[in-house]
Here is the input.
Amino acid sequence: MTTLEIMGANAKKASRFLMTAGSKKNAALLAVADALRAHCDEIIEANSADIKNGEDAGLTPALLDRLRLDKARVDGMAAGVEQVAALPDPVGRILEGKTLDNGLKIQKVSVPMGVIGIIYEARPNVTSDAAALCLKAGSAVILRGGKEAINSNTAIAKIMRDALKTAGFPEDCVALVTDTSRASATELMQLSEYLDVLIPRGGAGLITSVVNNSKVPVIETGVGNCHVYVDDSADPDMAAQIVFNAKTSRPSVCNAIETVLVHAAAADTVLPKIKAELDKKNVEIRGCEKTRAILGDSVIPATEDDYAREFLDYILAVRVVDSIDDAISHIAKYSSGHSECIVTSSYANSQKFTACVDSAAVYVNASTRFTDGGEFGLGAEIGISTQKLHARGPMGLNELTSNKYIILGDGQIR
Amino acid sequence: MTTLEIMGANAKKASRFLMTAGSKKNAALLAVADALRAHCDEIIEANSADIKNGEDAGLTPALLDRLRLDKARVDGMAAGVEQVAALPDPVGRILEGKTLDNGLKIQKVSVPMGVIGIIYEARPNVTSDAAALCLKAGSAVILRGGKEAINSNTAIAKIMRDALKTAGFPEDCVALVTDTSRASATELMQLSEYLDVLIPRGGAGLITSVVNNSKVPVIETGVGNCHVYVDDSADPDMAAQIVFNAKTSRPSVCNAIETVLVHAAAADTVLPKIKAELDKKNVEIRGCEKTRAILGDSVIPATEDDYAREFLDYILAVRVVDSIDDAISHIAKYSSGHSECIVTSSYANSQKFTACVDSAAVYVNASTRFTDGGEFGLGAEIGISTQKLHARGPMGLNELTSNKYIILGDGQIR
Here is the structure.
């Protein structure tokens, strides 16, 4: 057996323990949180090595910042684990049930997934966040982080495993793949004998690679080419505020918008208001010909590629459309299926947009930035699914469980 | 674009129509049913060509029987479509909802998948059954049946498409891949731009191939290595009746059992009763040494492979185990995760077995043969999922839908 196969078999064994661990999981999570705080210095020391390697490798200041851990961030990691411990147990919910005419009593009950694989990139806090969520959901987890954070991740995983062992749990409830070569990621995607689901967290390149190569069922997360459509009936000020918030409050995240579509009848009024807001943060506008005719030559001509891209930056594509149907067609063509918004005062158009736009979250008169597990009240989030199978939109603890049927009889045969 | 890409793009377009088709779907389904009856002779004529080709190719009588259509079977296909029309619409259910403190009203609503691919084998009635279920669930469907039934499938698909067109629906709501080469199946598995989910229906070889090669999310169905465990506290007669029913009432289906595990303390009493029942249908028993010591040399020695196999025949593996824990471990090692049963009179053991056995359906004192969409009251069934993502166990119309969040605001920003 390869190293990863052994890791998979051990995780599967640990997952059998977790299936019936019940509320003992909370005590184990609190022990993990305590251990993270107690070993804060070790974590920061390991992280220093990653930071030094990152500086030598010429990582950007933004990436170095995502990688860096200090006492406050380690404390935040521990607090995150404690928050997960405090959430309701997603396992053992009776989802539905009935008694059949033949007397069989059928229940559909939420159960752990088994073994969850997470492939992620630079941020080391994902190591404890993801492990805590999987544990609480009753599953063992195999983590495979990026090479930039390998020293931090190794230290964090060891501290978690030791704490679990002390708490009477199999340490293999949490495992870290320390080989950060591309080959180890590929092998993890083939580990269908042991892994029940694989969740990639990171950029579009990582996610596409996992979707295309995995034999393990995948939950696709996080790519967000999101839109605001400003209807001809929209309140222009509300439209400008929503566009400004959705674009600029945090441009690097997946629920930020990349394109605004404006109804032709509203364009003369609305576009200058939107531009006035965006100018406050020097947002670059790439617009269609009609947009440029209204806003002037400072607007860069938009290309086909601009509509298809996730800028994740202070750049916004703008297109004037002739109707709500054109807006819906544009979204169907270019959207990644994450979050879209209509700004409107028309009841009929609000109904049409929410019915016809096929994305995980469809808003009327609100910023797309609300697509988030915390904002939706899920308590915590493992990612935002942009696929239609299993979970769609923000995924909390419930989405990390499966279900089974339990059928109680007294000798029924068919 | 290739033929399949064009088919995919057309299906995607048709799926946009279906998203908001509402109860018009029922009228279209009834039109399809009428058309199947009206064109019964055409279907039977096309089927005759398949039967002749099958005879020439030396298909077994059992396979020829599965392939054959007559007036009664075509009528059954039409009746099946009518039954689907009569079921409640799985689209538009409000699954949950709440109002956040900031006034946003969030609803989680069931929506169509979009485009569903079905890869299946010999039986031509799957063509109308699967199409009807997908249509009712608001999704377009791309069907790719086996080469043995290509003439029948082509005739059935054409009749359905014509009927849909007459009913005012895009004919591309239903499409059939007429190229039955392995290459067309492989290309369908790569069609992730257009397909939202792919469901293989057939034998273990087909399903493994789809799981291993698909870039489209897959729902794994149907392989059933199912077990009955007879506890030391079991009623011996109930145990014998359940084993006999679960093995022999229809050995070729996935919810039939392949292995019986008997507690050592009950083996002397229970095994002869089980054998007496099984002898009525000449079931071949392959047993462990302890089984052979009790039942005699007519029992064939069981190999490791016998425990891992889905016989789908009048063959049963039998093993004597020392404890319920040994039974649970055996099932964890060999089961395909479909259906398992404990026969017991112990409350504690019933609780332990249902908690610790990780399969789609876990029974206490009832035959595994009840794992079926019809028996579970789902109204219809597209297959039985043995994976943990999205759906597990019998899949009805609800399991053919996805969901989205609709969020209503009045200008909220974050």
